[in-house]
Amino acid sequence: MQLSCETEKVIGEEWNDWRWQMRNRIRSVADLAAAFGWHVVPGGVTEAEARFPLAISPYYASLIRRLDPGDPVFAMSVPQGLELVDPPYLGDDPLEEERYTPVPGLVHRYTDRALLISTSICASYCRHCTRKRVTGQRESVISAARLGRAVAYLQQHPEIRDVIVSGGDPLTLADNVLEKILSAIRSVSSVDIIRIGSRMPVTLPMRITDKLAAMLRRYHPLWINTHFNHPQELTPQAAGACARLADAGIPLGNQTVLLRGVNDNPHVLETLFRGLVRIRVRPYYLHQCDLVRGVEHFRTPLARGVEIMDFLRGRLSGLAIPTFVVDVPGGGGKIPLLPQYIVSSDPSCTLLRNFEGKSFSYPEPQEPGHFL
Ligand SMILES: *Cc1c(COP(=O)(O)O)cnc(C)c1O
Ligand code: SF4
User: Fold this and answer.
1) Ligand 2 contacts CB of residue 167 (under 6 A)
2) Which residues contact 92 (CB under 8 A, 6 or more apart)?
3) Could you report the per-residue pLDDT of 282-320, keeping only the tens digit for each?
4) pLDDT, tens digit (0-9, with 9 covering 90-100), for 163-173
5) Four-way CATH pick for 98-336: 3.20.20.70, 3.30.70.270, 3.30.565.10, 3.30.1490.100
């Protein structure tokens, strides 16, 4: 029918317009009920929504296949009562970023790197977000004054070579606002690389327009790390977004958060990591879930991550294997965790085990005199 074809075309155009997606995010329990056809709101949802911000882009909501927390996309985006479980070791700022914030909005924890909080806005608020003290609390964008102070700090600290533009999600910013930030950082000659951390390729891939990619490529060397957690997020649209960025010469990495009931399964992660390299995204980190409030139901024992790493090694291309890291409480920073491959060691020989569990002895170098 003529009319319905026309209507579908308009809806299609809107659907593919990233600003329409941002304007039409699910933002309240009433929106959830309308989107999911809930007659009765499940227990705890209202309380959890009052505690931690809610947003889900229509695109990301469309990836939900089952309306219960057994669905990974549902679990990562829809509030649930379990978020109210509040053990004493979970906090608002688990990485003590505030302690490492010399000027507002700039986190300087590692000597040669600094992280700029460019906005508090994301297309979808992850229930497991580490930076819930910032994200979505009050949707706001970095002011010119704040950016100026951050750039002045970078100028006074030439040891900073890598600036991570983070948030919130920097790709929620309009092209011209993002470009102001990038050119301000680029004006500091001691900065070698700019990194953008963004979940938009996952939650709102239509944001990655050709125009955006063309703007970003003017600020090379520029890297992007994104945040895919489950193969269900590997859609043709997400693949298209990554292709536009990779075609602009932007190396792409991925930071997965290990989440119980979502992806704490070696086969799920194998599928995810194989799928990522196929769309030219290099798995960079597998993160132990940070100790932020509201995530107790998502947490896994550290040993689970190590066990998964052990499963992946030797089975997958090394390119598809990330580093498993835990960001320790107390502001200690990221610590990589590896399966134990060294069985025993003495000055002449180290006993190793390989990915098949077989043992091999490796002769250590000796002083030349030893053989004379
Ligand atoms: C993770 C992180 C970085 C970047 O660390 P890499 O290991 O280089 O990826 C920088 N600053 C802060 C505050 C971080 O949490
Ligand atoms: S996209 Fe990143 S910053 Fe935004 S809510 Fe998710 S984890 Fe937090």
Assistant:
1) yes
2) 132, 133, 292, 293
3) 999 999 999 999 999 999 999 999 999 999 998 999 999
4) 999 999 999 99
5) 3.20.20.70
